[in-house]
């Protein structure tokens, strides 16, 4: 019973980070119907930026978020202005062209990191990296708890922006129906630029926080990209709540699989991948789609 | 002259084939190594193009098939098989694997399929590094006495020509047309009676088999393989970039891409400064192609030919301006 509680708490802690990581992908997909393959590269670059700030100025990784997130917001807007906006727009679904373009961006970002920091494995050590506290009989690392706290704060903040401000409402309007939003006077091009910046900033926050938990190389981020993609597919691609629920589901499955089955840790990535394929094949609408389907069946009965 | 014009592709293909096959008589060993590598790339790029270019299903997991072919060859050769006899076995395993992977993932469309294939590639690499009989991450070596460059060269050149001929033939065939229909509009293709999943599975299987044979020849030529060499993401990347840069969905495009990339690879290996920036070059090429000419070198060539034709015949230019 106690083990169950500890595993559940661990899953919850992981889910906060997963949600932050996935929201960046979801907002870009929602507004532009683009799958941002460069997401992994942006997370990696943010991890290095945090590392550099910590190494050079001794800035705490969590404080450096205040610098890194706005900087990456601007970087995202710049990427949009120089590359993304020139792509032909597809209304039906994400185009191969945008996917491959962003794949190219990812490669360039990787090489940038190799050129600046070399290919060695890096990690960030703070005085509290090895510290932990005991809650309900389980030990939880301080960084994990801090990451969870920051994730929750950022997600709540984002939710407030999306629900209360004009900008947020405009983002949601473009996500729901681009043409109708434009008819209502929303400048969809500008919203797309802001959304790309926002997505990039969230990728950066996730990357900075990942750097306090894991060691990283310029190749870092691929398995997290797959996880994030799995989460937004689970969450139905564009809903805010969906992302949170998807993150919880993936975190619980991963943690319970490693605690109660003998699947080796190195195969952990296979879990998110298998889940991704199963969901895409069995319930392409993700959890919301599945819910609607069950709902309809219940009504029919 | 009119024969030349009508069968330009055939003539070019024959010249290309003749050059490849005559080369051992005239060229030095270093040049032959480069040509071997080019032929290897031609097989990979053209085979990938069958599914990725004609049918529009971009897969980032093709190194899995190179790896299956290479590992089958090495592991069977270690038990005393002749390396040549292992090639069909590797191809058969790759075909089987392509179907196992294809059945679930071909239910996904476009970019979703692409992302799932990143996962397949990763999973295969992780599993190959973890298994014991594959030698783990340190890799395996061919038994001594299996190395013979001459035969291997002809086999690879022959495989490249066979792949090209097969792809060119399939393109004319109803099968090629159904793949083209799937790329343009999968729902419309289904409505016209194309069994899209079956066509995709067949294209996947054919290309997987060809790539696995190339992988087997790769193992014999280099004598040593590891998950880092044949299951590498970089290899998958090169396989994808060659047809994209050359021109997806054409027969000539992947060959041009293979030539460009084998040349790039020679240059990259020669200079340390370039070797460290190969991802800049690959990524930059990908960005440039997607922004300016998604049909690659072939599309660029067609555009230039169009300009030239219009410049040569003022009447056409007039019509172009009017229309």
What is this structure, in a nutshell?
The complex is a heterodimer of chains A (301) and B (323). Chain A is built from twelve helices and two strands.
Question: Overview of this structure, please?
Answer:
The complex is a heterodimer of chains A (301) and B (323). With 301 residues, chain A is mostly helical. Chain A has one domain: ABC transporter involved in vitamin B12 uptake, BtuC (Orthogonal Bundle), CATH 1.10.3470. Helix content of chain A is 74%, strand content 3%. Chain A contains twelve helices and two strands, in the order ααααββαααααααα. In chain A, β1 (132-135) and β2 (138-141) form a beta hairpin. Chain A is globular, with a radius of gyration of 19 Å. Chain A starts with a helix and ends with a helix. The model of chain A has no long low-confidence stretch (mean pLDDT 85). Chain B is mainly alpha-helical. Chain B has one domain (2-259): Orthogonal Bundle (ABC transporter involved in vitamin B12 uptake, BtuC), CATH 1.10.3470. In chain B, strands 1-2 form a two-stranded antiparallel ribbon. In chain B, α4 runs antiparallel to α5, α4 (63-78) crosses α10 and α12 packs across α13. Chain B is globular. Classes of the chains: A mainly alpha (301), B mainly alpha (323). The interface between A and B is large, with 40 and 38 residues.
Please give the number of β-strands of chain A.
Answer: 2
Distance between the termini of chain B: 33 Å
The quaternary structure here is heterodimer
Output mean pLDDT of chain B.
Answer: 86
Q: List unreliable stretches of 5+ residues of chain A.
A: none
Task: Describe the strand arrangement of the main beta sheet of chain B, using strand numbers.
Answer: 1-2
Helix count of chain A, per DSSP? 12
* Structural class computed from helices and strand pairing of chain A: mainly alpha
Our count of helices of chain B gives 17
SSE string of chain A, helices as H and strands as E? HHHHEEHHHHHHHH
- What proportion of the residues of chain B form beta strands (DSSP E)? under 5%
**Total tally of structural domains of chain A:** 1
CATH topology of chain B: ABC transporter involved in vitamin B12 uptake, BtuC
* CATH class division of chain B: Mainly Alpha
Structural class of chain B: mainly alpha
């Amino acid at each position: 019973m106690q083990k169950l509680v500890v595993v559940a708490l661990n899953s919850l802690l992981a889910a906060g980070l997963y949600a932050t990581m996935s929201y960046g992908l979801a907002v870009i997909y929602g507004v532009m119907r683009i799958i941002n393959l460069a997401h992994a590269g942006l997370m990696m670059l943010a991890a290095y930026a945090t590392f550099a700030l910590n190494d050079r100025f001794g800035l705490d990784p969590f404080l450096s978020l205040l610098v890194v997130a706005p900087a990456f917001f601007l970087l995202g807007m710049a990427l949009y202005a120089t590359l993304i906006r020139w792509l032909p727009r597809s209304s039906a679904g994400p185009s191969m062209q945008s996917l491959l373009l962003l794949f190219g961006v990812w490669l360039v970002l990787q090489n940038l990191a190799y050129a600046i920091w070399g290919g060695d494995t890096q990690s960030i050590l703070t005085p509290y990296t090895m510290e932990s506290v005991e809650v309900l009989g389980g030990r939880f690392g301080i960084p994990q708890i801090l990451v969870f706290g920051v994730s929750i704060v950022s997600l709540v903040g984002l939710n407030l922006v999306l629900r209360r401000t004009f900008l947020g409402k405009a983002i949601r309007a473009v996500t729901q129906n681009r043409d109708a939003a434009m008819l209502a006077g929303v400048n969809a091009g500008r919203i797309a630029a802001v959304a790309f910046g926002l997505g990039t900033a969230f990728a950066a926050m996730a990357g900075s926080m990942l750097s306090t938990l894991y060691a990283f190389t310029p190749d870092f981020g691929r398995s997290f990209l797959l996880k994030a993609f799995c989460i937004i597919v689970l969450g139905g691609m564009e809903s805010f709540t969906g992302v949170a629920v998807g993150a919880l589901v993936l975190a619980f499955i991963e943690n319970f699989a490693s605690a109660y089955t003998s699947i080796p840790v190195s195969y952990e990535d296979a879990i998110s991948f298998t889940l991704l394929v199963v969901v895409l094949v069995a319930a392409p609408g993700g959890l919301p789609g599945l819910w609607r389907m069950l709902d309809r069946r219940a009504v029919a009965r | 002259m009119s024969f030349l014009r009508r069968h330009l592709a055939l003539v070019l293909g024959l010249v290309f084939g003749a050059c490849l096959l005559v080369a051992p008589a005239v060229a030095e060993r270093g040049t032959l190594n480069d040509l071997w590598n080019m032929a290897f790339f031609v097989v990979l790029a053209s085979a990938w193009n069958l599914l990725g270019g004609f049918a529009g299903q971009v897969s980032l997991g093709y190194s899995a098939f190179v790896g299956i072919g290479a590992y089958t060859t090495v592991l069977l050769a270690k038990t005393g098989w002749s390396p040549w006899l292992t090639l069909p076995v590797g191809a058969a395993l790759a075909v089987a694997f392509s179907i196992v992977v294809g059945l679930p993932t071909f239910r996904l469309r476009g970019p979703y399929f692409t992302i799932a294939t990143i996962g397949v590639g990763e999973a295969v690499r992780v599993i190959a590094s973890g298994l014991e009989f594959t030698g783990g991450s340190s890799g395996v070596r061919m038994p001594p006495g299996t190395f013979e460059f001459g035969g291997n060269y002809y086999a690879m050149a022959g495989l490249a020509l066979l792949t090209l001929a097969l792809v060119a033939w399939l393109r004319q065939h109803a099968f090629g047309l159904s793949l083209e229909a799937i790329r343009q509009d999968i729902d419309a293709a289904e409505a016209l009676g194309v069994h899209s999943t079956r066509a995709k599975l067949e294209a996947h299987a054919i290309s997987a088999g060809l790539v696995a044979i190339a992988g087997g020849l790769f193992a014999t030529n280099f004598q040593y393989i590891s998950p880092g060499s044949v299951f590498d993401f970089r290899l998958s990347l090169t396989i994808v970039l060659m047809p994209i840069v050359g021109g997806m969905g054409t027969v000539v495009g992947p060959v041009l891409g293979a030539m460009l990339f084998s040349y790039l690879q020679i240059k990259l290996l020669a200079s340390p400064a370039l070797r460290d920036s190969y991802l800049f070059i690959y990524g930059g090429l990908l960005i440039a192609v997607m922004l300016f000419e998604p049909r690659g070198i072939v599309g660029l060539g067609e555009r230039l030919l169009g300009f030239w034709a219009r410049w040569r015949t003022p009447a056409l230019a007039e019509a172009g301006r009017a229309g």
